[in-house]
User: Fold these one by one.
Assistant:
Number 1:
Amino acid sequence: MPCYLDFMCVFGLSKSARELRFSGFRAQVLLKDPSPDSAIPDLGRSGRHFQMCYNLKGIARIPNGKSMLWSIHQAAIYHQFDIEKGTTLWIVTKGNLDIKDRIKTLTGKDGRAEDKAFDTLEQCLKSSLAVHLLLCHWSTEDWRWYVQFLEDKIDDETEIAVLGPRGIGEAVRIYTSADVQKLQNYQDKTNEIIMILEANNDVLASLRDFYKAMTKDTAFTLGNACCEDLALFAKLVDEMKQDSAMHVSRARLLVQITSDRKNLVS
């Protein structure tokens, strides 16, 4: 899919994080009457396949001495599945080997048998869904703790302004423009969380809807045989979307709190 190049371009050198705003899901389906050129028997390709590409963003905690740094990571994913041969192709572009290591664990000796079985077409499809779920889970984990980190930072910066000195000898703080700028930075980061999680949720919804639509396609011969697996896949994706939506609500509240406290200290 040529459009996968668009997803890879976000990894180019940039002075800003504007590419965090780019997100999407693209898919192509060719289940019947493939062209002769698309069939490559030696590679296990019948020409009857579907393919997709999408990107997701995750948050990572990076130890920095006694403190903790947070870094937003992107991943661009390409996937192709041959419905006649069961062969799959994955291309994952990311700035480190984190996802590669997770997939190796998923399909390694300690992984679940059903996540690494490829003896039948049904098993091949189920194993590919397991990789999708791994990627979706990666994009949703640790956001809770990042929001909490920002909540704690904002509380620490504005506690005196909100509560005031509560006794003789308690500290009094004079806020400056630098303090307001620091709060603005935290507010910007919180708005960034909202943008990213909403974009991730749109991608997860598109991924779920793609497989739902496939079950209604009469040319998709695995639809009936794998209907329970596909229903479970949709359910698990929905649960991850709900978790992200909760973090978005929490972040929206934090944006409002930060705005009120900027007014209080300025």
Note: The two ends are 52 Å apart (CA to CA).
Number 2:
Amino acid sequence: MVHKILFWSGFGVAVRLWQLGLEMRPFFNKESLWVYPLFAAVGGSFGYWLMGVESRQMKILADRRTSLLEKRRRRAEREGLPDKVEEGKILGSSS
């Protein structure tokens, strides 16, 4: 969790360094040192947002997986087939 925020904070600082390198300006100018925490904060907030997106996607995928397993179990019961869906495993059919 925290590693994503730290990574994107570092990415924000790297973007600032890249910007200054392209402009051929000094990296550690006294008047512009306040910008580094700003770029780190923007990058960190993006990482925090991205972490929320990932958790929502994982929840949706888990719900979808559960519904598919339940659907397969009901179909197997209806057709009188042996249960090929085990807890935590999905076995493919051989047809």
Note: The beta strands are 85-86, 89-90.
